[in-house]
């Protein structure tokens, strides 16, 4: 029987990564990510599966971003019997991320059911609850980078560092059948060299096939050192004007990256000594996971933590867990830096900080991450004159600054260089990118005579 790869999700789009490897003896699912769309689409796409869940022999999770692991609890609810393999750091992060994802869904469904009650419509259910999200990690088996693990009769798994977020992995699957063997690599998502905290991505030897992301397949990031310089200047300008720097940030990786740079800038005395608030219980818990997983950090960060000079703990850094502590920040008129979620300003405590600070021209809203179209974060990034927060229009008088260089995704050049490490590839499959980005990267590879292919949703291709 031919070895096949089916593209079940995260093709021609960014979210919902999911791929099915079909061999003579096994069915292996690579990633079970949540697809983000409008509410109806969200629930219908994420609760339909084009394969029999109970027949899977193994699930492999590349990293703890919800668009890669967020649908694992749905699989469990559908009768998943097999184990889920990830790195041990990913396993720890998934406990927090999946609980948070369940909590967000419960809140959304509670709101929807209130509306449905009024309209006499039937009640709906979340894909899974906070508790179900949290519990699902019991099925995870955490393994180290470089460790070979037989996950099915004819498939061996190895993880190597993807350099994207803590614990992220390029998945390597060796498939050995009677008369053939092949090696498949899955670099979705792929990070960058030179990022703080993590080592750069590793390219495993001898791949026959490669599945690679294309989030920034047609873009080029500014260097990371420039991002740090820009960060310094924004802070200095705002503090000089006696304003606040408000940073909407993803709780996983971006917040730790921002804290890391703030610690460096303070040590270099490049910015004034002002209080820095991490106003996100999730980000605080995630930062603890970083401290518990030294083997997954780069040498510099590891050494700093061992020498009790952790870049995640310093005098100016304050953590606000409770809502009461968070609200106190509104009354405090001193210059300060506030980091809060969500990164795209769609929910969470950042909304209160924006509401309270966005009309004051002394303040700065600093966008450090991706903002999807039509989100509040995107409207702020585009400097719309008025933005709606909690249903009320606010005039956007604060400065808006954007730092693109903090990205944890490889850009077009970094993706290209990664692919070019494999002159003997039989085929490269492009996934995890919007049409324009994956098409741009496709053109670049085709012009260089790389055997490249852009699959469509639910397409099945034969390997070997
Ligand atoms: Zn990711
Ligand atoms: Zn992703």
Care to describe what's here?
- Helix 4 packs antiparallel against helix 8.
- With 464 residues, the chain is α/β, with parallel strands linked by helices.
- It is 33% helix and 23% strand.
- The chain has a 7-stranded mixed beta sheet. Strands 7-8-9-10-11-20-21 form a 7-stranded mixed beta sheet, with helices on one face.
- The chain is built from 14 helices and 22 strands.
- The protein folds into 2 domains: 3-219 and 408-463, Ribonuclease Z/Hydroxyacylglutathione hydrolase-like (Metallo-beta-lactamase, Chain A, 4-Layer Sandwich); 224-402, Rossmann fold (3-Layer(aba) Sandwich), CATH 3.40.50.
- The protein binds zinc ion (ZN) (2 copies).
- Residues 65, 67-68, 189, 432 line the site of one zinc ion.
Q: Tell me, rounded to a whole number, the average pLDDT.
A: 96
The percent range for helix content is 25-40%
Structural class: alpha/beta
Strand fraction: 15-25%
Number of distinct helices: 14
Low-confidence stretches: none
Distance between the termini: 11 Å
Shape: globular
Q: Using the coordinates shown, work out and report the CATH topology of the largest domain.
A: Metallo-beta-lactamase, Chain A
Summary tags:
464 residues, alpha/beta, Metallo-beta-lactamase, Chain A, Rossmann fold, 7-stranded mixed sheet, 22 strands, 23% strand, binds zinc ion
């Amino acid at each position: 029987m031919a070895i096949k790869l089916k593209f079940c999700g995260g093709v021609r789009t960014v979210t919902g990564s999911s791929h099915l490897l079909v061999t003579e003896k096994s069915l292996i699912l690579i990633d079970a990510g949540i697809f983000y769309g409008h509410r109806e689409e969200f629930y219908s796409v994420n609760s339909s599966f084009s394969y029999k869940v109970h027949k899977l022999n193994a699930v492999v999770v590349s990293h703890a971003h919800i668009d890669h692991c967020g649908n694992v609890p749905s699989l469990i609810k559908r009768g998943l019997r097999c184990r889920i393999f990830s790195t041990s750091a990913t396993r720890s992060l998934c406990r927090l991320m999946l609980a948070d994802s369940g909590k967000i869904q419960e809140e959304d469904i509670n709101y929807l059911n209130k509306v449905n009650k009024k309209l006499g419509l039937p009640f709906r259910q979340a894909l899974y609850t906070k508790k179900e999200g949290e519990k699902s990690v019991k099925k995870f088996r955490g393994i180290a980078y470089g460790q070979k693990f037989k996950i099915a009769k004819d498939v061996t798994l190895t993880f190597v560092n993807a350099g994207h977020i803590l614990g992220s992995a390029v998945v390597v699957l060796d498939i050995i059948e009677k008369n053939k063997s092949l090696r498949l690599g899955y670099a979705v998502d792929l990070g960058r060299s030179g990022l703080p905290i993590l080592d750069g991505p590793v390219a495993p030897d001898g791949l026959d096939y490669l599945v690679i992301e294309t989030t920034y397949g047609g873009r080029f990031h500014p260097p990371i050192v420039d991002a740090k310089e820009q960060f310094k200047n924004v802070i200095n300008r705002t503090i000089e004007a006696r304003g606040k720097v408000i940073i909407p940030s993803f709780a996983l990786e971006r917040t730790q990256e921002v804290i890391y740079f703030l610690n460096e800038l303070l040590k270099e005395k490049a910015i004034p000594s002002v209080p820095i608030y991490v106003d996100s219980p999730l980000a605080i818990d995630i930062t603890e996971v970083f401290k518990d997983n030294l083997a997954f950090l780069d040498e510099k960060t590891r050494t700093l933590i061992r020498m009790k000079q952790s870049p995640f703990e310093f005098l100016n850094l304050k953590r606000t867990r409770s809502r009461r502590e968070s609200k106190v920040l509104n009354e405090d008129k001193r210059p300060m830096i506030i980091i809060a979620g969500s990164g795209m300003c769609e929910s969470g405590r950042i909304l209160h900080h924006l509401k309270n600070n966005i009309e004051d021209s002394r303040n700065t809203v600093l966008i450090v991450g991706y903002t999807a179209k039509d989100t509040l974060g995107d409207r702020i990034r585009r400097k719309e004159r008025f933005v709606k927060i909690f249903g009320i229009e606010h005039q956007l008088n604060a400065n808006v600054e954007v730092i693109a260089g903090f990205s944890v995704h490889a850009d077009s050049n970094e993706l290209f260089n990664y692919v070019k490490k494999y002159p003997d590839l039989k085929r490269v499959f492009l996934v995890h990118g919007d049409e324009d980005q994956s098409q741009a990267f496709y053109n670049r590879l085709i012009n260089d005579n790389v055997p490249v292919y852009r699959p469509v949703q639910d397409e099945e291709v034969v390997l070997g």
